Each structure stands twice: as structure tokens, then as C-alpha cells.
Amino acid sequence: MTIKETFEAFNKLNVLIIGDVMIDAYMWGNVSRISPEAPVPIVSVNTKENRLGGAANVALNVKAMGGNPILCSVIGDDEGSKVFIDLLRKIKLNTEGILKSKERITTIKTRVIGNNHQMLRIDEEVETPINNKEADTLTFVIKRIINQKKIDVIIFEDYDKGCLSPLLIKTIVSFAKQKNIPTVVDPKKKNFMSYTGVSLFKPNLKELKEGIKLDFNHNNSKELGKVVAGFIKKQNIDSALITLSEKGIYIHNNKSKALIPAHIRNISDVSGAGDTVVSIAAMCLALKLSPVLTATLANLAGGLVCEKIGVVPIDKKQLLDEAIALKL
Question: In whole angstroms, what is the distance from residue 159 CA to residue 54 CA?
Fold first, then answer.
């Protein structure tokens, strides 16, 4: 399959995304003076914007690549939930997997941007786990969607906000295996060791070190390889994809291991890059692309979105052009 054919094949994929969703809110403005009340800059706001974030940003990336994202999560029953549902409907994303809870608030992360630099972030959120009834309902809805639709890959997008629990993870991973659906994880700290038996595990370096409670010299490729090999064996994981910031990305499974260097970029904002990486990697996995090609495309995509300010999905044409230029 040529790279162009691969990108066309992305259009046929149904991607189920389970995890913590949020609104990424932005206040854009100019800074020209310091406050007389405290030694802080005054941002004169001229634009406000709401964007889909967290697992919903993964859905945006899947959609940007031509795939069909199906999003499953729990949000509040509040003003934020109305904004969130409106954002989904504006881009014609299905809301069947979105449950509302009267016991929670919808997560909103507000970034204050002055002179094109992030000055401050304000988080409104609840991090406690969803209750048992909500977890049971969410599990039921996820299973129903899997039974009713052809799902090509499942992504767990974990932001430690309480949507994903060890029991829900275990149940859905087991159910996916019965259906021969590959599973991909973008983990965080709380559930790090709960994703036993998944197809692809994608932490960043900090998350890996915190998750396995081990500091190691990641600049030593042998040491990195040994740590990752031990982890995937212990967790019965097929492949691990470790993002290494400016060092690039590391792919490791039983058949191959490779360090893909990062491309030189004009980095503006790294927020949301992990969402892009896991989206591309999952879609490549669904198409059964080679581990090295999967890592290379995910690495390219993650770098490209870092050139934009704020959380933005990948530009499919730009990614294809770069892939062609690299003769992938």
C-alpha cells in the first residue's frame, strides 16, 4: 500500500474513543502593562474561544484524518455540558456515547494567552471517579456500540479525571479481545498499571518513569530498551510507543524496536500533541501498518501540531505532504 493509499484507507475507519473529555477555553489578548495591584501582567482580552479537549481532541484528530470517531465519556449536567454538546454537534460528531452526571461538573481548562504566549491556565474540574452506577451505564453503552457498529480500533484516553476505572478498563479490553479489536492507550498516573493486555501503550517519558516508579537513563538506548521490554512483558502488552519530546519517539515490540528522531520544528505549543500522536498511531494500528511506519507518522504528526498555538487537530494534507517528502 502506498502512502497515498494508506491515507485514503484512514477514511474507512471507525474509531471508538473512551476517556476524559473537556473544553479547552481560550482568552486571547494583548499585554502592554503590569498591574498596579500585583506584579502580574494585564491581559486585555479581545477574543474568547471554546474548543474540544482531552479525549474529544483525539476525536477531532481522528475526524481530521478522515476517520469516524465515536466518543464515550461522562460530563456534568451543567452549563459547560451544553457548550460541550454544542461543540460536538457543530462538527457533526455523534453524542450517543456521552452521558451526563448531576454529581459532576464538565471539565473546563481556560488558557489566558497574551501576546501569543500562555500567561495562565485555570482548571475547573472534578477528579473523583464516576460512581458505580455511572460506570455500569458507560460500560453498557460502550458494549452496545461495539456490538452495533464495525469498530476498527479502541482508544483509551486517560486524563485522570475519573471517567476510566480499573474495572471498566479490564472489562472493555477483554470484550475487545473477544471481538478482535485492537486497543490503544494514552495513560496517566492513576490507572497506569491497569491496562494489562492492550495492543499499544503510549506514555510519554515522564509518565513511564512515574508509572513504573523507576528513574533510568533514557539517553542510553540499551537501558531504555531493557526497561520497555520488561514493562511490556510484565503487562502483556503487544507494543509500546514512548514519546521522548525533542528526542523523538521510541517504538518497541517483540518483532522490532526503533528510535525515530524528532524533526526540527518551530515549537509554539506542545499542548494536545499527545492526543495527535495516539490518534495517528491507533489508526495506523487498525490498518496493520508496520511498527516503524506507525511510529514515524505519529512522530511527524505530533511535531506538526506543536507549531500551532493552542490545542489543534492535525492537518491531513500537511501530514501527507511531509510523509511523501520523506518517501515513506
Answer: 7
**Structural domain spans, the chain:** 3-21+54-103+127-325
Burial string for 207-227 (b: 16+ CB within 10 Å, else e) reads: bbeebbeeeeebeeeeebeeb
Pairing of strands 200-201, 239-243: parallel
Q: How far apart are CA 317 and CA 276, in angstroms?
A: 15
Place of cell 523507576: 214
pLDDT, mean of residues 288-306 = 90
Give the separation between CA 276 and CA 281, rounded to whole angstroms: 9
Fold held by 3-21+54-103+127-325: UDP-N-acetylmuramoyl-L-alanine:D-glutamate ligase (3.40.1190)
Our answer to whether residue 269 is catalytic in this structure is: no
Residue 10 has pLDDT above 70, yes or no: yes
Q: What is the mean pLDDT of residues 115-143?
A: 95
Instruction: Pick the closest to residue 145 from 17, 291, 306, 308 (CA basis).
Output: 17
* Nine-digit cell string for 30: 494583548
pLDDT per residue over 46-101, tens digit each?
999 999 999 999 999 999 999 999 999 999 999 999 999 999 999 999 899 999 99
In terms of C-beta density within 10 A (0-12 exposed, 13-18 middle, 19 or more buried), how is residue 15 classed?
A: buried
Which one has a higher pLDDT value, 263 or 201?
201
Identify how many contiguous H helices and E strands the chain contains and give both numbers: 10, 13
Which tens digit of pLDDT belongs to each residue from 152-191?
999 999 999 999 999 999 999 999 999 999 999 999 999 9
Cβ–Cβ < 8 Å for 265, 305: no
Q: Which of 123, 152, 275, 315 is catalytic?
A: 275
Q: Which of 163, 179, 173 is nearest to 198 (CA)?
A: 173
* Closest C-alpha to 177, from 154, 202, 145: 154
